[in-house]
Amino acid sequence: MTALQAVNSQHAAALKARTAWMASQDGSEPLSTSGTVVQFAEGHEIFAEAEEPEAFFKVVSGVVRVCKFLSDGRRQIEAFHVAGEMFGLELGGERLLCAEAVSDCTLVSYRRRSIETLALKDEKITRQLFQYAMQNLANAQNHSLLLGRRGAAEKMASFLLSQAEHSADGRTVNLAMTRQDIADYLGLTIETVSRSLSQLERQGMIALSNTRELRLKKIEALEDLAA
Amino acid sequence: MTALQAVNSQHAAALKARTAWMASQDGSEPLSTSGTVVQFAEGHEIFAEAEEPEAFFKVVSGVVRVCKFLSDGRRQIEAFHVAGEMFGLELGGERLLCAEAVSDCTLVSYRRRSIETLALKDEKITRQLFQYAMQNLANAQNHSLLLGRRGAAEKMASFLLSQAEHSADGRTVNLAMTRQDIADYLGLTIETVSRSLSQLERQGMIALSNTRELRLKKIEALEDLAA
DNA sequence: CGCTTAATTGATCAGGGTCAATCGTGGTGG
DNA sequence: CCACCACGATTGACCCTGATCAATTAAGCG
């Protein structure tokens, strides 16, 4: 049960909704006119496992976690999604994962039905969706490598480096998630996460400003660790 | 280096090639006319990491492993692909994984370029490809859950059940792969794989006929383990 | 200013890794 | 045909990393 205690699962509520406005990221953004902006407060559920997938989402701001549960409550976070990333794309009649807001966040929601008809008309949309699906796949596969074949410190180093990537200067990291979230993402316990961080700090590779904010001091060394 | 010693990596050779003939699996098989049959001998490489992806493949017979390597030689097998499954679908300019024949196998190869033009004309092909990509994604995500949050015996039970699924009677399993392959798929060592199997046998859940063949005796119990 | 929840730290334990010996099987050559 | 060899698999002994249990500290929040 210990994995469950940190998991908020109140029901989701859309706070605002209007015609989508989206920052484009690679010039073209063919989906821009068809979505709806929705917001979720920290800890709230965006969609649940086994639900019928009616829409998928793109992150505008905030962080979303996408995860699965084992029957005994153990949780595996598959991915954290940040601004610009798409999640919740599923073909079947039932969701395989659930999604929750790690922090307050703003999303654009695309109804599955309307996208499907749109995709028939515009080949660019199809390509775009494919792109997102394949990106998710690549992430999942890297995640497997991380989970299966690395020690605790290696996992942390790897995680921190990936976090630093979507950071402004590439050195300062603002963790949106709790230690429990990190643990469930890396397949570790909260204690081991904490110890790994302390250890990296003792070795001078990182500096913790406070619980949620840190700086990477020796990127080189961290990369060696992450191998 | 111990992980490397079991990895064959001779170069691939196509033995036969003619216009594709394919068994249809769900009525429609829009890709059937556009592929080329190729064969690979056990242990041979189908494509390598970092190579340019020129084609993707569908398994006709045999088993294929798809995997990644860490710089020190540790290997993570992402998936085993059997008859009917598609693999090697990638968008970028560089392959993220490599693929090797676990047993002698027959594949249908689809050239990326020709499929792309075909997909433009036939919406069914696009849909089909999407389907495969999403299936791979779902598999990868289940794999993460397996790797991150389960003990050795649980992993084995889970693996055996999944193998039994593509078996005729759902109880008899013919392992196409070595213990090393299984270990690298489950994120364990060869010894732990062996011990887990012995343990499951001692508990009467399975019966090993020989190294490569076994029967599931207590599916119920195995499912409980796999949770 | 307490109260609650998150995070750190320490002590101990156990699951799985490592090292090493043995077994089994299939292939080869005398 | 059988002895030998090579390689994969099994088994055992021991060790180490990370989990567990428990206590303490830090940080929000009413």
Characterization of this structure:
The structure is a homodimer of 227-residue chains. Chain A has 227 residues and is an alpha+beta fold. The two termini of chain A are 34 Å apart. The longest helix of chain A is centred in the middle third of the chain and has 27 residues, at 123-149. Chain A has helices at residues 112-121, 123-149, 152-165, 179-186, 190-202, 219-226, and strands at 36-40, 45-47, 55-61, 64-69, 75-81, 86-87, 98-101, 105-111, 172-174, 206-210, 213-216. In chain A, the strands form 3 sheets. In chain A, strands 1-8-3-6 form a 4-stranded antiparallel sheet. Chain A has a 4-stranded antiparallel sheet with strand order 2-7-4-5. The A-B interface holds A 68, 70-72, 74-76, 78, 89-91, 96-97, 120, 123, 126, 129-131, 133-134, 136-138, 140-145, 147-150, 184, 186-187, 227 and B 68, 70-72, 74-76, 78, 89-91, 96-97, 120, 123, 126, 129-131, 133-134, 136-138, 140-145, 147-150, 184, 186-187, 227. Chain A binds a DNA duplex (30 and 30 nucleotides) through residues 2, 6, 151-152, 178-180, 188-195, 197-198, 210-211.
